Amino acid sequence: MPLFAHKNDWSQAGNNFDFLRLVLASLVIVSHAYPLFIGAADPWQAHGSPFNIGQMCVMAFFAISGMLVTRSAILSRSVLSYIVSRVMRLLPGAFVCALLMTFALGLAFTTLGIYEYLTDGSVWSFLRRNTMLMSIQYDLPGVFKDNVYPGAVNGSLWSLRVEIRMYMLFGVIIFLARLRPEWMRHLKYVLLVLFAVAYFGAILPPLLPEGVLTPKTNWIYGYYFAAGAVLLCWEHVIPRNLIVAVVLFTASLFTVNTPFLDPAMRLTLPYLVYCFAFSQATALKRLRGAPDISYGIYIYGFPVQQSLSALFADRFGLLPLTTASLAITVVLASLSWKLVEKPALTRKRAVEDAMAGLYRRVVPVAGA
């Protein structure tokens, strides 16, 4: 169902999304190293930015998801196909990670006895909530209570909950538009309006009561998803120049400690992501084709760092601990990709067909 004229190569071998995500996930670990290992803000936040480096990387992740997930919704065979694709990308890896955190890491680091730990209800709610990713639980009983950054076992998962909300919101918008060809032709304008609303909603105080729409979960990161969707739908008219993108983004960073940093970065960061992703620089082209381990790096990085902090924070400094955490996380992420995520993705069509078959059998019975 074409929406616009393609200008860029969206095939996995024709762009740099995988490498970009790998870099972003690794930088999240570097950013987290400061509070987790030495109890300090990372250098960029210490310089006066309202966002640390890790949060900026998550913003870039949302811009990437806005492009790729919106495209998936537009091109999916059905609503079921779209849902299965999203579920199979996130939940199998999250489930195995939650299992390992609950029963391997948790039992290894808890100060409770085994029976006391396993009979604590929060252990099982941790497994359930951090598998479904809609209501994240950060702590396990007796685990990491004396760390430099106490309590949290996997503090990175909050963004996945926000991302799932974006999958739902944009999925509903796109599949409603797909009901009629004339609606589909206007989809890019609808997304442009949504982008503008999100932009101003992100830089102005929300007018709703406190807690209804918090800036972090519904405006700031949702805006970057909307920006990615707009970059996708308007790619045929958006010029792409990586050098210009780097210059604009760098210029926006010089507005740190002023009210202009946030609104400037909201325009320049998504454009930098877009230009970098489709750059045909020879050096970047040579990096294509590697396994996509960025999701594993993201979900395992924080607990690996907390484990190293619990064991070695009083004996080693920031650099060796950060290096070790990156190395261990890459190994775990590679195993997650090979043993969990990639096999799950290859079974998407089989799961979709099975669910469609079950639906066809159940519906006539329900209607009888």
Structure description:
The chain is mainly α. 70% of the residues lie in helices and 0% in strands. It is built from 16 helices and no strands. It has helices at residues 17-38, 43-46, 53-75, 79-109, 114-118, 121-132, 158-177, 181-185, 187-203, 215-233, 242-253, 261-277, 282-285, 294-312, 318-346, 348-367. α1 runs parallel beside α14 (294-312), α9 (187-203) packs antiparallel against α10 (215-233) and α11 (242-253) packs antiparallel against α12 (261-277). The longest helix has 31 residues, at 79-109. The chain is globular and about 65 Å long. The model has no long low-confidence stretch (mean pLDDT 92).
Structural topology:
Layout: H1 17-38, H2 43-46, H3 53-75, H4 79-109, H5 114-118, H6 121-132, H7 158-177, H8 181-185, H9 187-203, H10 215-233, H11 242-253, H12 261-277, H13 282-285, H14 294-312, H15 318-346, H16 348-367
Helix pairs in contact: 1-3, 1-14, 1-15, 3-7, 3-10, 3-12, 4-6, 4-14, 4-15, 4-16, 7-10, 9-10, 10-12, 11-12, 14-15
Q: How many beta-strand runs?
A: 0
Describe the oligomeric state of these chains in a short phrase.
single chain
Please work out how many helical segments DSSP would assign. 16
Mean pLDDT: 92
Helix-strand makeup class: mainly alpha
Largest sheet: none
β-sheet strand percentage: under 5%
| Succession of helices and strands | HHHHHHHHHHHHHHHH
Low-confidence sequence ranges: none
Overall spatial form: globular
